[in-house]
Amino acid sequence: MAGHIITLIGGKGGVGKSQVAANLAFAFAAENRQKTLLLDFDQKACGDQNIITGIKSKKNLKDLSEFSGALDPRSIGQFIGMHKMGVHYIGMPSDTTAAQQINVEALGKSLKAMTNLYPLTVIDAGSELNELALKALEFSTLIMIVVTPDLLAANQSKRLYSDLITQLFPKEMIQIVVNQFQKGHPVTADVIGKQIGKPVFGVIPKDDQGCIRALSSSAPIFALSKGSAFSQGVVSLVRTLKQKNVLKALEKLKKPENVQAKKKTPAASNTRPGKDPWTMLKTRIHKSLVEEMDLKKQDDSDPKAQIILREKTKKLVVELLGKEDTKGILNSRDDMNNIVKQILDEALGLGPLEDMLSDKTISEIMVVGPNKIYYEQSGKNKKSDVTFTNDRQVLNVIERIVAPIGRRIDEKTPYVDARLADGSRVHAIIPPCALDGGTITIRKFPENRLTYKDLVNFGSMTMNMADFLRISVEAHRNIVVSGGTGSGKTTLINMLGGFIPANERIITCEDSAELDFPQDHVVRLETKPPSLEGDGAVDIRCLVKQTLRMKPDRIVVGECRGGETLDMLQAMNTGHDGSMTTVHSNTPRDCMSRLETLVQYSGVPISPKAIREMIASAVHMVVQQTRLEDGSRKVMNITEIGGMQGEVITLQDIFMYKQEGMSKQGKIVGKFMATGFIPKFIENLEKKGYKVPRGLFANE
Q: Is residue 356 part of a domain?
């Protein structure tokens, strides 16, 4: 009678799946008094099972995949390591490069033979659905998803369960096992079952001391202490399977065949880094390069040193490639140049992002884990064909960005705002907060500062609107630029800053310095994150307070998003007219509500009416910028604040954009209109002798 295969897989690393797999094999051998085979299919954690079991197999899985003979009780002996408790074991190669070179198809034939040699085989399949894991699942009778009682692990297990169902694995053959289970923990087995969408099959109690003792002894917990909580949990699992005759009931289920072949689409192939010869060659060269050169100690600040380093590295890469067998991988000079460039970009630059950063038509780059890179071109989001090699490469790029400016990113603070050398704004967030791997968003800094003429040419505003905004800035109007994410607020406030007379002292406060004013007398201030000890942070609010002691003529706050709004409004109200800031909101009316809410973040007890009065007297104008459906960015409203009327702030549009429809090419059709309203401050300017052409406020 054919034996059964149980494969254990985790939705994420760190759930103790390898410990459970090893002890499950030992518990089965003891309970059934039969020889049990344990196979290590985890390519990421090479050699972990050697430590957990204390067994060393004579040969590894790569050797087995290359074995051309027939597997029988005699020939299998040359591969397995044996334990006196009846567990036979074949491990993964300890070298990750060798682990990636396993012949998956050949190993599948070996698995089929195993079912005739052993009543039960337990496979530790790692925590991702790569080709090797899918081949194990194809021959399995039962799949166990190991999860710990935390919501992140449950969420990843839900995704894994969904992927398996999509691959046509029957729901009945997939069971959920909760490891490190604690009574009284808020995340119960029922909670996990509901989140994943499958009831929990069994639980294994938390036993930290037992696990640590077992690892330090290089022996399974079951072999050291059968009476421990962990061992009892595993035995309970084995007995439940035996009593309910689960394996016999499942063996007749129809399982999918050649699952990995279905996954070999261009997109899917990118999700298994290291499997294609090109990527494997790159990985080997990169590893050799790191051994030959300490790239982290190189000086990135000196451009000349960078050029010398790149040439030196290029020479070494070409030498290393000359020692490799590249037949069938590098078939032309272009291939050779391409792989050398990719390796240099990964080792010294920002990897696959380098070409996008140099492409002037791309305005934003968005990385979602190693396998998905999107970019914005002509206002539209598009997916790139290039990908990162693996998660580590994404993290290397993030570290390379944040290190020169003294920022840090780690598990304690898994997010960071930073900037590139050219001023481009970068936001990064890493696991555990980013579930699909490191995420990077780069808002590229324009090579040439955009002026009002550029915005008029782009159709973002009319020349009359630009002239009016120039007059407003020169007349020391306090302006709030309002808009959504990516609507062009920073570009617009940069343009407005260009209108400030050169003899005035400007002080800017930002989270990540982006503003680039043409004037000479500009003081740029930037926030500072806390130190490793958690102190020493300097926020925007603190910077705004500092500016008041620095004799500013104009204060420009990159963005008001908290209690600094109160300090900004007070500065506007106390002799710093002509100050500017940006706020996230959808309309000028929403902008008033948003400012009111942000003032309340300061924690100072002020009545809503007093806040509205403060806003009405401090802010003179709102410029509303919007990104429309066709990707174009337009100034939708230029609105004057007219003071208070009862409990409400009065607003009066001076210019507005009226949308009229959509062209056949998908472009929005509309026109800019002057409402005919002439702002109150224009009369005051005219009294001072400033000539303002009234034609500005008339429609052409």
A: no
